């Protein structure tokens, strides 16, 4: 990701925060639709994300094109995106999609754990090769893939999670579904000013153990911690913790493997 795109994403995020409660699930759906629209129209995308064009003129363009057609909050985010300089014109699509996920994360009820639900969707996909193939197929009609998502998830997870997964399969842009789900989880956690940690253990951890681990990781990363927990009996004991690209592995299985390598 280029520095220009990082700065542009920061500006769009700040606009969402300024919208407060107005940036809700409906606004997220609009942002997803706008992202798909820009993805399908090279001409429109080029006009809105042209780095050589005057930012005020680009903002005026989107105001003329979309005022009255989308909500004020969605239009504000799009207008901010149009004013920015993106490293690549296509990055604005990623920016609007990210804005949609962040709008969902910031407006979801406290009773809804989008990160946990996305994790469970990812586990379901990983455990079913046919399902993963159906969702990642480049030949399948996007509407058909969306239909699969709605049939499988509609009564099992929140409307917020359904909306995110629906967007990811409707517009994959070369990404695998598992990769997209991980990205969405990380984005949700970041919006809540947390980092996502995947903890793998041989047996379920107690609440006290998770609290101690949360304290250690919070000090290390200076942020709140959102957990994914995975049970893998092959670890025998100990833990494996992944935070982004960092891996902390204290599992017995790994220590035994290290011993075998030293003996060899």
User: How many separate structural domains?
Assistant: 3
Distance between the termini: 43 Å
The rough form would be described as: globular
Number of strands: 4
Q: Quote the average pLDDT.
A: 91
CA-atom Rg in angstroms? 21 Å
Low-confidence stretches: none
Order of helices and strands: HHHHHHHHHHHEHEEEH
Proportion of residues in β-strands: 5-15%
| Helicity level | 55-70%
Oligomer: single chain
Structural class: alpha+beta
Number of H- or I-type helical stretches:
13
Pfam families: OSCP (PF00213)
Subcellular location: Cell membrane; Membrane
Main location: membrane
Family: Belongs to the ATPase delta chain family.
Description:
InterPro entries: ATPase_OSCP/d_CS, ATPase_OSCP/dsu. This protein is part of the stalk that links CF(0) to CF(1). It either transmits conformational changes from CF(0) to CF(1) or is implicated in proton conduction. Belongs to the ATPase delta chain family. This is ATP synthase subunit delta. It is found in: Cell membrane; Membrane. With 264 residues, this protein is of the alpha+beta class. It folds into three domains: 3-107; 114-190; 193-263, Tubulin/FtsZ, C-terminal domain (60s Ribosomal Protein L30, Chain: A), CATH 3.30.1330.20. The protein contains 13 helices and four strands. The chain has helices spanning 3-19, 25-40, 42-49, 55-66, 72-83, 91-107, 114-126, 129-136, 142-153, 159-170, 177-191, 207-221, 252-263; strands spanning 194-201, 224-231, 239-243, 246-249. It has a four-stranded mixed sheet with strand order 2-1-3-4. Strand 3 and strand 4 form a beta hairpin. The longest helix is centred in the first third of the chain and has 17 residues, at 3-19. The model has no long low-confidence stretch (mean pLDDT 91).
